[in-house]
C-alpha cells in the first residue's frame, strides 16, 4: 500500500500547465479506476459488508481465499501456471482493508488526473497497468519463495507519482506533517515526492519477511514511472499555481 509517511491531508494545487492541463479538466480513466476499485472492494469479503461471506472465522477464511486467488503469491507465480501469471494485473484491483483502499485511492485522485491529462487516456491506461504489473512482478522476483499474498494498486500508483514528479516538478503539494505539529505546509513536488521515495527506500531496507507493506513494489513502480515519463516526454511541464480546496483523507501503511 502507498503509505508509511503519515501525511494526513494533502493536495496538489495547480492551474494551467503549458496550455494543456487545467483544474477541473476531465480524467475519466483515473476516476474510472477509483470507482472500479471501490466497487470491487465493497463486493468483496475484504469489506466485511456482504453477509453471504458469513462472520468471524468464516469471514476470515473467505478473505484469505479471496486474496490468495486474486493476489500475487510469489512462490506460485514462477511455477509457470497461466492463471498465476495474470495475478500481477488482477491484484491491482484488490485491497486488503478500508484504510488500504482509501489511502491508495486518495493518492490516485490527487496525482492521477493531471498525469492522465498530460499522457492521454489510452497511454495513461497502458502506463498504469503495465507499470503496476511490473512493480508487483519485481517484488515477487525479489521474494520468490514467499507464500504471502500481495494485493493493492500501490505499485501502479507509485508509478503515477514517479511520472508526476518528472512531468510537474513545480506543482505545489500541501501536507500536514506530524513532526511539525500538523501545520499545513506547501512544497513543490520535487521536494515532497523524492522525500516520500526516500522513506520507501529506508522502509524497504528494514522490512522483514512476512505480512506488511510491499515497499519494494513502491520503489520499482516509482522508478518505472519516472523513467517512462523521462523517456516519453523529455521535458517537464511548467505549472502555474492556483488556489484549490484540499480534500481530507489519510495516508497510512
TrEMBL record:
Cited Pfam families: Rhomboid
Single Gene Ontology MF annotation: peptidase activity
Keywords: Cell inner membrane, Cell membrane, Hydrolase, Membrane, Protease, Transmembrane, Transmembrane helix
GO-annotated biological processes: proteolysis
Enzyme Commission number, as recorded: 3.4.21.-
Localization annotation: Membrane
TM segment ranges: 21-43, 92-112, 124-142, 148-168, 180-201, 213-231
Domain of life: Bacteria
InterPro entries, per the entry: Peptidase_S54_rhomboid_dom, Rhomboid-like_sf
Annotated ranges, domain Peptidase S54 rhomboid: 89-233
KW Plastid (keyword) present: no
Enzyme class: hydrolase
Membrane topology field: Multi-pass membrane protein
Database matches in PANTHER family: RHOMBOID PROTEASE GLPG (PTHR43066:SF26), RHOMBOID-RELATED PROTEIN (PTHR43066)
Name of the protein in question: Rhomboid family intramembrane serine protease
Protein species of origin: Streptomyces coerulescens
